[in-house]
Structures are given as structure tokens and as C-alpha cells.
Design brief:
Length: 279
């Protein structure tokens, strides 16, 4: 599984480094040497913090260009891309083989960790991978079986089509096998539900972790950037800004967007929101 993620990262970075020109959804208007127009993105809710920070920084440097982002979920974002209704489809998972067959190119812009979280009153602070699998497959239903209080485990997850859910289940070998008590449609909803529900467990993007919940160590390894880079924390996934065809085949506006992501300013934005730069 880890090998697959690394492979997709390598492919994505190779695509990101390419240059060239074709016209996409964003309108292009030359004004002297400056570009003007709109770039449209849609997809992963987990990528909201990154997209908001990146678009704000990009538009500040490029006042003639407007960037709009819709947070519809990874699969919906890729579908919008293949239908030609947006320039870029955001996915918080690797692009699937079937999507690639439709001409979708995977451009990995950052690496994110998936944090396993509980409510702050839970006294279980560490789980093994096997224990986590047993919880999400329904084989373990009470925290007392894991050294915690006699309290039912409330299993929270994301909705079908979520990139976070897809990556979480794939990394644990639980594709379509999780027994969820509730399936919620955004990172913020999972965070709020786990924080307010005794006995709850959920998973969210690492950059969304805050003081309202407890982040669980996995196999005695905490979910941190350093541990993800070293490979000791295994729940991580790519953040993808997919295009229809290679970046070199996109409009000048879209190519300028990816040039900015690769720039020193763009890389600072990625690190500033708690994400990891791809190797």
C-alpha cells in the first residue's frame, strides 16, 4: 500500500514539472504582459484550507486573475473535470485507473497525514493498526476492550466519494468494509461530531486537528509531519490537483497557477497550512 502511494507521488511530481500550452475552462485575456481571467477548481473538502490560502496568495500576486473553488468531494471534483466544467479537479487521494483512462492527469501538490481522533475525555491515547481495523470493521465495539472506559465506540467516517475515506480505507485494507455509525460530508462535520460525542472515533486531515479533540497515536507513533516524512506514521495520502491532460496542455492561466504552486511563495503556502511538500 505504502509503495502505491509513493509511486503515485513520483508520477504526480513528474507531471507537475512539465510546461506547455492549451486552452482550458478559464478565460484568458492578455493585458500587456499580464494575464487576466478566471481559474476554476472543484473537489476535496479536505483541501479547503490549502486552496483558500493558495488562491488568496496567488490572486494577491496576480490581481487580474480570479480563482474560484467549490468543495464538492474528491470524486465529484474529478467528475467535474472530466465533464469540462472546471479547470482543475481536487482530490485528497490518488487518481484511480478508471479516471486516468478518461484522460485525467494526477498532479500531486502536497502530502497530508490522516489523524485518528477521539473526544478529549477518552483515556485511550494509542492504538495499533490491528486495533484500528477491528474498530472500523465492527469487531471491537467497546473502549473497555482496548483498556478504556466501559463505553460504546461510536464509529464516525466520511461519506462515499470522500478522498479522506477512500485513502483511510485503502491504507487499512478496509475498502467498503467499514461499519459506520454515521457518515458525514465534510472534515469540519467529523471534527465537530467527534468533539461533542462521548465514545466517538473519527479520522480527519492532519492539518484540521485542533484543541477540541484528541489525536490518537498509531503503533505508538504520533501523527506529525516529521513522523510522516520519516515513514514511521503510515496514514498519509497525496493532495492532488488533477488536470485533463498534462499541465503542458493547459491554458496559460492554469499553467501560471501551477508555476505559482512550485514557486518559493507557493511552497511557503503549503507548509504554512501544515502540509508536507512532495519529494
Amino acid at each position: 500500500m505504502k509503495k502505491t502511494i509513493k509511486k503515485t507521488i513520483a508520477v504526480g511530481m513528474a507531471a507537475l514539472m512539465l510546461g506547455g500550452s492549451l486552452t482550458g475552462c478559464g478565460s484568458t485575456e492578455a493585458s500587456g504582459s499580464e494575464l487576466g481571467g478566471k481559474i476554476t477548481l472543484a473537489g476535496s473538502t479536505s483541501m479547503e484550507k490549502l486552496c483558500e490560502a493558495m488562491s488568496e496568495s496567488f490572486m494577491e500576486k496576480n490581481p487580474g486573475i480570479t480563482v474560484t473553488v467549490e468543495y464538492t468531494g474528491s470524486s465529484a471534483g474529478i467528475e467535474s473535470l472530466t465533464k469540462g466544467s472546471v479547470d482543475i479537479g481536487n482530490a485528497s487521494r490518488a487518481v484511480k485507473d478508471g479516471e486516468k483512462e478518461e484522460g485525467v492527469t494526477e498532479n500531486i501538490v502536497a502530502i497530508d497525514g490522516i489523524a485518528v481522533i477521539t473526544d478529549k475525555e477518552n483515556n485511550v491515547a494509542d492504538l495499533t493498526t490491528e486495533q484500528l481495523v477491528d474498530i472500523y470493521s465492527g469487531n471491537t465495539a467497546n473502549w473497555s476492550e482496548l483498556g478504556g472506559s466501559d463505553e460504546a465506540i461510536v464509529v464516525i467516517g466520511r461519506e462515499a466519494g470522500s478522498g479522506t475515506r477512500g485513502a483511510f480505507e485503502e491504507l487499512l485494507g478496509l475498502e467498503d468494509a467499514c461499519k459506520y455509525a454515521q457518515e458525514l460530508d465534510s472534515t469540519g462535520a467529523v471534527l465537530a461530531k467527534v468533539a461533542s460525542t462521548p465514545g466517538a472515533i473519527g479520522y480527519i486531515s492532519l492539518d484540521a486537528v485542533d484543541d477540541s479533540i484528541q489525536s490518537i497515536a498509531l503503533n505508538a507513533v504520533e501523527a506529525t509531519e516529521e513522523n510522516i516524512v520519516s515513514g514511521s506514521y503510515t496514514l498519509s495520502r497525496p493532495f492532488v490537483m488533477a488536470t485533463k491532460g498534462e499541465i503542458s496542455e493547459q491554458s496559460d492561466l492554469v499553467k501560471k497557477w501551477f508555476d505559482y504552486i512550485k514557486s518559493e511563495d507557493g511552497q511557503a503556502v503549503i507548509k504554512g497550512v501544515g502540509l508536507i511538500l512532495p519529494e
